[in-house]
Amino acid sequence: MGATVRGLFVSVMVMMLASQSVLATSAVELGERISLSDEALRLHGVAVDSGESTALVYGLDGYVRVLDANDPNQQVEMVWDGSNELHDADFHPGSQTALIVGDNGVVLRYAKQDQSLERAASDVSLDYAMMTSVAWNTAGSWAYIGTDEGQIWRMRAAEDGGAELHALSASGTSEINAMDCHDTIMMCVVISSGSGIGIIERDHTFTWVGGTGYYWTGVECPSGETPYCVAVANNQIIAHIELNPEDISASIPSISRLQNLDLYFVGIAAQGGDRTLIVTAPTGLIEHDISLNGSYPWLEHSDIGDLNLSGDNIVGTWATGTDSGWIVTERGNLFQYAPAPSGSSGLLSLWIVIAIPAATGLVVLSLVYSASTKMQDWTIERIGNEDERKDLARRKAKQRRKQR
């Protein structure tokens, strides 16, 4: 094949492949943005009730704000008598109250009915510890609270208006990073920064079941019927934890690693059913379906055009539909996400419809060209460079001498 045509063929293929690479791969796109403050808030997370009607964000300096989950423009900033940093929150299964935990043994109770925010336990009762995580058990009869030193407490309201507290045995020595309880199975999953993954059973028995050697950053027990929870560690690690009340040994984590990803897993949130969203750094989201044991692009960092998000950290999400919802960032921005319009998928379809036949045509053309001397000569005469034309003239002169 002549150099000119080879170059033309290669150039066209490169352009087609380059066009494919710049097409957005995200399953969703960003919509409305809401800023909670003119200043950076340093939020740590968001908790959403089981009815998905109320979202509660929290963070530095005791900041708490309640949002309408379907219309986050509707907001109520909560005020209480402290300014301790708040690290985690969880709604009661009944959706009417939530617990928020933070530094120096702080445990707050939010009540929807009167929009109140009050202390739920005395600081001294919890040894002024840094409370890093909280989760209500399946029945809503007890809440579990984890600390930065690896302790786990169970807590419920006492008759005197205070709190009844009991420490769980076999707690670890490293920070409890997160915990979550299954919606229907009376078991909870605990993750730590160094001690691995643990299970709390119906009778409050706590057992470490594996996963040591990883820095676990998030755990989620989806709302589906699957008897699994999923945990993530920072170096692209995903663990499935089976919940079997009859056999705790079945809860040994099944651990896998997503390959060829230049990012870290920093958290995980529910999207609905068996689907979760893994929060990544650099800023992005990956969908993980527990029942399918599959992970898929959701929001690629390269597809984020808004610097208010790409330059920030995602601290949580909540769903408003099958593939829609809101993102919460550390600085206090909310971003709506929804499936890309049909036109975007149409662009990908158009690429498939045009590019594949075109590439096939180019391959066929190159084969025909290689087999036809006349076509090669015709092409060189019209678009060949000077050297190719001189070479063609010499070949034709040689052929004429042979014919004499």
Describe the secondary structure blueprint for this structure:
Blueprint: H1 3-22, E1 28-35, E2 43-48, E3 54-59, E4 64-68, E5 75-78, E6 86-91, E7 97-102, E8 107-111, E9 116-119, E10 131-136, E11 143-147, E12 152-157, E13 163-167, E14 176-181, E15 188-192, E16 197-200, E17 206-210, E18 216-220, E19 228-233, E20 237-242, E21 254-257, E22 264-272, E23 275-281, E24 284-289, E25 294-299, H2 307-310, E26 314-319, E27 325-329, E28 333-339, H3 342-371, H4 373-383, H5 386-403
Question: What would you say this structure looks like, in words?
Answer:
There is one protein chain. The protein has helices at residues 3-22, 307-310, 342-371, 373-383, 386-403, and strands at residues 28-35, 43-48, 54-59, 64-68, 75-78, 86-91, 97-102, 107-111, 116-119, 131-136, 143-147, 152-157, 163-167, 176-181, 188-192, 197-200, 206-210, 216-220, 228-233, 237-242, 254-257, 264-272, 275-281, 284-289, 294-299, 314-319, 325-329, 333-339. It is elongated, with a radius of gyration of 29 Å. It starts with a helix and ends with a helix. Strand 19 and strand 20 form a beta hairpin. The chain is α+β, with helices and mostly antiparallel strands and 404 residues long. The protein has two domains: 3-20 and 348-403, no CATH class; 31-339, Methylamine Dehydrogenase, Chain H.
